[in-house]
Write a structure and sequence with these properties.
By secondary structure, this protein is mainly α. The protein is built from ten helices and no strands.
Amino acid sequence: MPIDPHLLALFTVTAIIAMIAPGPDMLFVLGCGMRGGPRAGLLATAGVATSEAIHIAVAAAGLAALFAAVPLAFTVLRIAGAAYLIYLGVQMIRHRKGVQDEVAAGGGGMSGRRAYLNGLLTNLLNPKMVTFTIAFLPQFINPQLGQVWMQFAILGAILIALEFLVDGTVGVLAGRIGGWLRRRHTARRRIDVATGGVFIGLGVRLAVER
């Protein structure tokens, strides 16, 4: 077996605990599901999962060395991610009335494509996720077994599967609840404002945390 069974079991338990605890990814997927329905919630999860796959590949390639050698790179990426989240939040609040017209015409509040791209970019531009991946995954890898890339791939596949299981479920359930609320214009406007506020809050949190 290319990976230590004991480390694999420990990793799985730890990852499940980390996934269940509400965090930025779960809140983001929740917001997308509430605004765009179950499909948007699921595709937002797919976007987040895609970015996690990229983070894992980057971690295996040794981006940690870049951040250590050039601290400014971490800061630039952190600010870019925070700015993007705040931008998404402001746009949701600004265009909440326009979205009502779109829903009345039969459209959704957030397309699946937009939900996927937002999930991808939001998580991809979050250096804390890169740092978490770099700090978390290597603890469960045994270099003595060789095939380090294979070990990264196995752990990464488990992490992505858990992402779909936990956050995907949250996104779909939020979408079903949001679908009921979207038929009530006042409630829909409040959803957009609340979701925009969540995104802005996440962006500010990312910008000020170190």
